[in-house]
Design brief:
By secondary structure, this protein is α/β, with parallel strands linked by helices. The chain has eight helices and eight strands, in the order H-H-E-H-E-H-E-H-E-H-E-H-H-E-E-E. It has an eight-stranded mixed β-sheet with strand order 3-2-1-4-5-8-6-7. A hairpin with a 4-residue loop joins strand 6 and strand 7. Helix 6 crosses helix 8. The radius of gyration is 17 Å and the shape is globular.
């Protein structure tokens, strides 16, 4: 594990600049982030259910995440942070792009949702010894320059008994065909250049990074798009999109 005082940034400045240019349209469900809006209900439900199971909560309750401190790394303009806060969580939304954070703050103020938004990085937060019940790295891992270092920073902020949940893209020929050619060039779900296939991360690579950071991988699920239902759904197929859950052992049966 990396010493907090020596953590180097895993930020890819080109990626930050690319997403900064989308700040004004992040909340537009028909804009450049339309695909993420459609994906959001599934990942929100997955996070809710994982947290509810770990902290002995009823996921059907509207405030099922009350009392849990969550970190949404790479939060963008907050389309995941806000619904987590509505479920009762105390959410810190962090993003290195100032423009995204300003858009997130404006939207939260307009909708009356309380989220602690910060223009910062995982490394900076880890260096400040921040701790959370749940740390989220959703659709972020494939945009950093050093996956093991980034994961180590995220994992260092997970409390004993807490969770790290990550969602990313697998590096396969199938993901190149669907996530790059299909999503960016044919269907135009996301702007061209959103993803770089060589930065996609195989599940075993992410698992190794999580375990090297001191956590146990306790769950993994694939995510696929169902064109007939026009929605995303969980699957055993991890060839393209997938999610992993890591846990820091300790405080078994703990409630926040």
């Amino acid at each position: 594990m990396v010493n907090a005082k020596t953590r180097a940034s895993s930020i890819d400045t080109a990626e930050v600049e690319r997403f900064s240019r989308m700040a004004a349209t992040w909340w537009d469900p028909r804009g450049p982030m339309a695909a993420l809006h459609k994906f959001n209900p599934l990942r929100l439900a997955y996070i809710r259910d994982q947290a509810a199971a770990r902290f002995d909560r009823d996921p059907k309750k509207l405030d099922c995440l009350k009392g849990l401190r969550m970190l949404d790394i790479g939060c963008g303009a907050g389309i995941l942070s806000e619904p987590l806060a509505r479920l009762g969580a105390s959410v810190v939304g962090a993003d290195p792009a100032e423009e995204n954070i300003e858009a997130a703050k404006a939207h939260a103020e307009a909708t009356g949702v309380t989220v602690d938004y910060r223009a910062t990085t995982a490394e900076a937060l880890a260096g400040s010894n921040e701790k959370f019940d749940v740390v989220l790295a959703m659709e972020v891992v494939e945009h950093v320059v050093d996956v093991p270092a980034f994961v180590d920073s995220c994992a260092s902020m997970v409390k004993p008994g807490g969770l790290l949940i990550a969602a990313t893209l697998n590096r396969t020929l199938k993901s190149f065909a669907l996530a790059i050619v299909g999503a960016e060039y044919v269907l135009r779900w996301v702007p061209r250049g959103t993803h770089q296939w060589d930065k996609f991360v195989k599940p075993q690579e992410l698992e190794r990074a999580i375990e090297d950071a001191g956590l146990d991988v306790i769950g993994e699920r694939g995510v696929i798009y169902n064109p007939l239902a026009d929605r995303w759904q969980l699957s055993s197929d991890m060839d393209v999109n997938y999610m992993l859950v890591g846990e820091r052992r300790g405080n078994e049966g703990k409630d926040a």
